[in-house]
Amino acid sequence: MYITIDNEQSLALHLVDNSSSRALVEALKQGAITYEAHDYGNCEKVGPLGRTFPTNDEPVTTEPGDVILYRGSNLCLYYDTNTWDFTRIGRIEGHTQASLKRAFKAGQGNISVTLSLTAAAAKAAAAAALDVSRDSAVDLGDVNTILEHILSE
């Protein structure tokens, strides 16, 4: 799965295997989801997905790069730590806390977040949402093994 921020950077998300991430993948098979996220608690960007997904809450201490479903309908992108009962969706690997803060524009106001299953869909949906050229360059990572497994079922 891919997360695209303001059509500037796409990050590969390595999904955990639970009913929440499987439901999100099923929803994304119908098309990309774009939502607006805001800073919260100096540790995350969070915003409503516009629909509700099953939860698998457990006590979690987040780390930079964690992607969490909160109350079934909000997606949180973490750039610092927090402890609460959350549902894990996945993790953005290979980025430092500083690079995630830059990517998420921590402390700089709202961002547009686009979730999609493919790199092409991430780029197209983010471009359409921001009404910019579809030829803009996007820095893309590789799709993870769990996503390939889920999509092959």
Could you walk me through the main structural features you see in this protein, from its secondary elements to its overall organization?
The chain is an alpha+beta fold and 153 residues long. It contains four helices and ten strands, in the order E-E-E-H-E-E-E-E-E-E-H-E-H-H. The protein has helices at 19-28, 97-104, 119-130, 145-152; strands at residues 2-5, 9-12, 14-15, 33-40, 44-48, 58-61, 66-70, 74-78, 83-91, 111-116. Strands 1, 2, 3, 4, 5, 6, 7, 8, 9 and 10 form a ten-stranded antiparallel β-sheet that branches. Strand 7 and strand 8 (74-78) form a beta hairpin. It is globular and about 35 Å long. Residues 132-153 have low confidence and may be disordered.
Radius of gyration: 14 Å
SS strand fraction: 25-35%
How many beta-strand runs? 10
- The string of secondary-structure elements, in order, is EEEHEEEEEEHEHH
The end-to-end distance, rounded to whole angstroms, is 16 Å
- Report mean pLDDT, rounded to a whole number: 85
Please count the helical segments: 4
Runs in which pLDDT lies below 50 for 5 or more consecutive residues are 132-153
- Structural class based on helices, strands and sheet pairing: alpha+beta
The helix fraction, in percent, is 10-25%
Assign an overall shape: globular
